[in-house]
């Protein structure tokens, strides 16, 4: 009889296989199952051969092969498949056993599943896992939430397989109740959308306005990766710029300009709208992908619509520095917005999120890993109640230093007809956030004029609402005051 395994994993796609190998390399025994049992045979007889990995061919066999409390991790497609697997697992498990969902699940689904599974006496963890194929194998960032009572049993495994920062701290810790883990992973992915869009805008300006070659841009990104923009995404962009196709030409220029997406950025934007948080940069990053996807329509439009022809006059090296400033300042805004969303969600859901700890979890293993995140951790370590990253002394100074270059880049791009939606919306957010007075007074007057929605006055105490009979034809009755 085989020795009982420490943990079981369902789903032997790329992430599942690599997580299993990661766990086994850290001394844990793993049982594996896949709906297509051929994958089980292929895995245990190839990559898993000779390792402490046990193949199973039914959920019942998988559950019976595990030490108690049983820990079953799902790495399967989000949605109905997760619900079906939970439904099949529950009759096989005992009180105190643990189900873990490591997929890209929408956090409200995890909220719901925690309640259902806990009602059966079983614990449930929704764990965001970031890092892609390489991260899963060598050390991902893991963001677990759900049934807090399950954490002690899972903690040693997760923290041993997670990426580590310089001092050895694991990029994994308990996030919070219910769907908090998957929520933080969702925000991570939204910020990832923003980071990628910002980098592509920098590339667009350098290519179409400065007319830099891919090799020249490779050198730019290489230099940036050795400075304050040091990050995984800048690093891979550096490498992409140097990669040549079979004919010796840059491969990046042969790739069709039509971006895909799997929905986590969209979820982040929708959640921000629901919570009333101005998540403008990530929203623009999502819409930019949508705009790119209508490639055929854009090709036809390009034959009809015209704009300025990009033409640069000046010092290219100096302008590249300004592009770096725009990228860095916009990145700060993106993270400030992402953290504002997490703070709003924590208040709405009663979660006690550790914002500095989240930055630590993102410092290694995940797609948005960067040296920049250590500054976010320091900001929240210094002031746990910080309302916005822009108000932290380090980030305020960084924005002040980058601001002139940032404005120059956005203005120059507009005058040359190069779209920079993320750079521009980040600057608009910054200018709006630092404004003591915005033109919303006129907007509220308009709302009161056509809908009697009332307004507050600057010369009266906050919380008192007034209505004006603007036309003389209306009455004194006002609409109910509320905000969605």
UniProtKB/TrEMBL annotation:
Enzyme nomenclature, EC number: 1.1.1.44
Family affiliation: Belongs to the 6-phosphogluconate dehydrogenase family.
Pathway annotation from the record: Carbohydrate degradation; pentose phosphate pathway; D-ribulose 5-phosphate from D-glucose 6-phosphate (oxidative stage): step 3/3
Protein's gene: gnd
Keyword list, A-Z: Gluconate utilization, NADP, Oxidoreductase, Pentose shunt
Coiled-coil annotated spans: none
Catalytic reaction(s) noted: 6-phospho-D-gluconate + NADP(+) = D-ribulose 5-phosphate + CO2 + NADPH
Superkingdom, taxonomy of origin: Bacteria
Protein name: 6-phosphogluconate dehydrogenase, decarboxylating
Record GO terms (molecular function): phosphogluconate dehydrogenase (decarboxylating) activity
Function statement: Catalyzes the oxidative decarboxylation of 6-phosphogluconate to ribulose 5-phosphate and CO(2), with concomitant reduction of NADP to NADPH.
Entries under InterPro entries matching the protein: 6-PGluconate_DH-like_C_sf, 6PGD_dom2, 6PGDH_C, 6PGDH_Gnd/GntZ, 6PGDH_NADP-bd, 6PGdom_BS, NAD(P)-bd_dom_sf, Pgluconate_DH
The protein's enzyme class: oxidoreductase
Pfam families: 6PGD, NAD_binding_2
Self-association and partners: Homodimer.
Residue intervals of the 6-phosphogluconate dehydrogenase C-terminal domain: 181-471
SMART domains, A to Z: 6PGD (SM01350)
Gene3D superfamilies: 6-Phosphogluconate Dehydrogenase, domain 3, N-(1-d-carboxylethyl)-l-norvaline Dehydrogenase, domain 2, NAD(P)-binding Rossmann-like Domain
């Amino acid at each position: 009889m085989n020795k009982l395994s420490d943990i079981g994993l369902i789903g032997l796609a790329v992430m599942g296989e690599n997580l299993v190998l990661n766990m086994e390399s850290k001394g844990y025994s793993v049982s594996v199952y896949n709906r297509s049992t051929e994958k089980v045979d292929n895995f245990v007889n190839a990559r898993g051969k000779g390792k402490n990995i046990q193949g199973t061919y039914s959920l019942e066999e998988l559950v019976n092969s595990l030490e108690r409390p049983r820990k079953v991790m799902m790495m399967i497609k989000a949605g109905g498949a997760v619900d079906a697997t939970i439904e099949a697992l529950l009759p096989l498990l005992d009180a105190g056993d643990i189900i873990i969902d490591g997929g890209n699940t929408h956090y409200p689904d995890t909220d719901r599943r925690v309640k259902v599974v806990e009602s059966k006496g079983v614990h449930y963890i929704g764990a965001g896992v970031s890092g892609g194929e390489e991260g899963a194998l060598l050390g991902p960032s893991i963001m677990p939430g759900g049934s807090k009572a399950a954490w002690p049993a899972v903690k040693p495994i997760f923290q041993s397989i997670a990426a580590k920062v310089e001092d050895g701290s694991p990029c994994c810790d308990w996030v919070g109740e219910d769907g908090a883990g998957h929520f933080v992973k969702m925000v991570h992915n939204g910020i990832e959308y923003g980071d990628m869009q910002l980098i592509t805008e920098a590339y667009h300006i350098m290519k179409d306005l400065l007319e830099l070659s891919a090799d020249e841009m490779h050198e730019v990104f290489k230099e940036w990766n050795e400075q304050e923009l040091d990050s995984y995404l800048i690093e891979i962009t550096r490498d992409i710029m140097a990669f040549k196709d079979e004919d010796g030409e840059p491969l990046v220029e042969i790739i069709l300009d039509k971006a895909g997406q799997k929905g986590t950025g969209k979820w982040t934007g929708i959640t921000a709208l629901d919570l009333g948080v101005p998540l403008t940069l990530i929203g623009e990053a999502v819409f930019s992908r949508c705009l790119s996807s209508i490639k055929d329509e854009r090709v036809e439009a390009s034959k009809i619509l015209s704009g300025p022809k990009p033409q640069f006059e000046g010092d290219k090296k100096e302008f590249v520095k300004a592009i770096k400033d725009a990228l860095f300042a916009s990145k700060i805004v993106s993270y400030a917005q992402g953290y504002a969303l997490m703070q709003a969600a924590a208040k709405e859901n009663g979660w006690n999120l550790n914002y500095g700890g989240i930055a630590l979890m993102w410092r290694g293993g995940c797609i948005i890993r960067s040296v920049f995140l250590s500054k976010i951790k320091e900001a929240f370590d210094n002031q746990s109640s910080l309302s916005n990253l822009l108000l932290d002394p380090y980030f305020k100074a960084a924005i002040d230093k980058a601001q002139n270059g940032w404005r120059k880049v956005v203005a120059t791009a507009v005058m040359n007809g190069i779209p920079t939606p993320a750079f521009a919306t980040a600057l608009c957010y910054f200018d709006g956030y630092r404004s003591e007075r915005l033109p919303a007074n006129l907007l509220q007057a308009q709302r009161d004029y056509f809908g009697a929605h009332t307004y507050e006055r600057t010369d009266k105490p906050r919380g008192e609402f007034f209505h004006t009979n603007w036309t003389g034809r209306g009455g004194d009755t006002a609409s109910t005051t509320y905000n969605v």
